[in-house]
Amino acid sequence: MERDIKEALEILGRGEGKALDIGTGRGRLATALAEYGYQVVSIDENKEALIRTRGLLEEEGILNDILLIHGDAHNLPFLDETFEVVATYNAMHHMRDYKKVLDEMVRVCKKGGSILISELNEYGKKVVAERHKERGSHHEANISIEDIAKYLKVEYALIGEIKQRERTDIFISKK
Ligand SMILES: C[S@@+](CC[C@H](N)C(=O)[O-])C[C@H]1O[C@@H](n2cnc3c(N)ncnc32)[C@H](O)[C@@H]1O
């Protein structure tokens, strides 16, 4: 488990409920959530990424612990208040409209549930920008964890904690 994911999961703690992971990517956060005891649903809009990650999870023997779903974070295909945990790791800056994604995260999180958001900080952005240049991919938005915390406070009165780590900043709040 990568160090920044471990740090985020230590803040969240172990649990038994349903956790939604937004932006599956390579499935690192989804895997970590499953290891921490959650029943994980992980969603990504990129079918190829999902197929690749399904292969990785199969190799690791944990495919049965994680439900992979193809869909858009701006319009989550779940009923209101479905999940005990709604989490995302280094995916918010790829979103076309991060505020809409935050609206959706709050909507599908149960009352009393946790919202966990890990995002690249300035140093992390520099490191990842180099990798993106090599791959020809890019980031949609230059957002910070403070932007995320401010939006959730103003729109939903959610007061979270921000923990700063080497490459990522972590926001956690109860709904
Ligand atoms: C850097 S990866 C995230 C890393 C991943 N969370 C992990 O733990 O390995 C970003 C992912 O967000 C996905 N993504 C971007 N926009 C999205 C959207 N609107 N809805 C769902 N997934 C999206 C991308 O396809 C990509 O797989």
CATH secondary-structure class = Alpha Beta
| CATH architecture verdict | 3-Layer(aba) Sandwich
Task: Kindly estimate the percentage of residues that lie in beta strands according to DSSP.
Answer: 25-35%
Q: Residue-averaged pLDDT, rounded?
A: 93
Q: Major sheet, described briefly? A: 7 strands, mixed
List the helices and strands in order: HEHEHEEHEHHEE
Give a quick rundown of the structure.
By secondary structure, this protein is an alpha/beta fold.
SSE blueprint and pairings:
Blueprint: H1 3-12, E1 18-22, H2 28-35, E2 39-44, H3 47-60, E3 66-70, E4 83-89, H4 98-108, E5 109-120, H5 122-135, H6 145-156, E6 161-164, E7 168-174
Parallel strand pairs: 1-2, 1-4, 2-3, 4-5
Antiparallel strand pairs: 5-7, 6-7
The structure holds S-adenosylmethionine (SAM).
Describe this structure in words.
The chain is of the alpha/beta class and 175 residues long. The protein has a single domain (3-174), classed as Rossmann fold. The chain has 6 helices and 7 strands. The chain has helices at 3-12, 28-35, 47-60, 98-108, 122-135, 145-156; strands at residues 18-22, 39-44, 66-70, 83-89, 109-120, 161-164, 168-174. A 7-stranded mixed beta sheet has the order 3-2-1-4-5-7-6, sandwiched between helices. Helix 4 (98-108) crosses helix 6. The protein is globular and about 40 Å long. The chain starts with a helix and ends with a strand. The mean pLDDT is 93. Residues 23-29, 43-46, 49, 72-74, 89-91, 94-95 line the site of S-adenosylmethionine.
